[in-house]
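Researcher: Let's continue the batch. This sequence belongs to Phosphoribosylaminoimidazole-succinocarboxamide synthase, and it's 299 residues. Same format as the previous ones, please.
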Amino acid sequence: MAEGPILETHFPDLKLMSRGKVRDIYDLGDSLLIVATDRISAFDVVMPTPIPDKGKILTQLSNFWLRFFSNMVEQHLISINVADFPAPCQPYAAQLAGRSMWVKKARVLPFECIVRGYLVGSGWKDYQKTGQVCGIPLPPNMQEAQRIPEPIFTPSTKAEKGGHDENVSFLQMSKSIGEEMAARVRDISLKIYTKAAEYALSRGIILADTKLEFGLIEGRLMLIDEVLTPDSSRFWPADRYKVGCSPESFDKQYLRDYLVQSGWKVSDPPPELPADVVANTRSRYLEALERLSGHGLES
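Model: Same format as before. Here are the structure tokens for Phosphoribosylaminoimidazole-succinocarboxamide synthase:
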């Protein structure tokens, strides 16, 4: 039986390892079960209202990209087919269907690997103050949302629950995980972004920036977690893109804009979202999936 929107999972026979803003992760011993709920966050605050099918959209899109990059980088995915999952997962098959990934357990590198191809968001704010983005000099007189001459790699720390990621220099990253590993992560992140941006543009979408995560399994570098979803990337419709303003997007910028216009402040309790905001947010996620993968939501 199909399940309704899921804000939080409850699987008594499985060991809950962590709850993130969106994902619930269960420890299966030598592997993990990652379940994408329908939670949505804005400004690092989880909203009380779910976005129907959001977890399924994120999982399906991540799976598309993992297959897309399968010849470029090793990855942690074992299967998204619930029938393949270990026996303890099977009683929860209905809730897991379409929104979960069975993955290898990796030693997660403690950095978000961010690649920026366009000057927007916190990068734009940084540039306005310093002429740089995360310490990387850019040409003078650039405008908001302008394409950066060459994509730049700007790592950040992975925040503890409730905290904020902090931008760090490549040198700081190198000191933490070693020069060779940092260079490998930077180079593969830039290759993934460049290939994804080229493909997305062929589907009428600009990939402005993205955030990737990596881990190690027996010393081998693995692409892990979600990949190139609207939660981890900025996707813009190419036919409505223009320099000089923050473009319309397929990500949760629509929700952020709604919250700002409503007068809500981060210090306030998160509000219930109106039905039209939920529907419009869902439609943006779904359109990103359809345009990028060429398929609608699989049941």
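Researcher: Any comment?
Model: The helical segments are 54-68, 93-96, 122-130, 170-177, 179-202, 253-262, 275-293.
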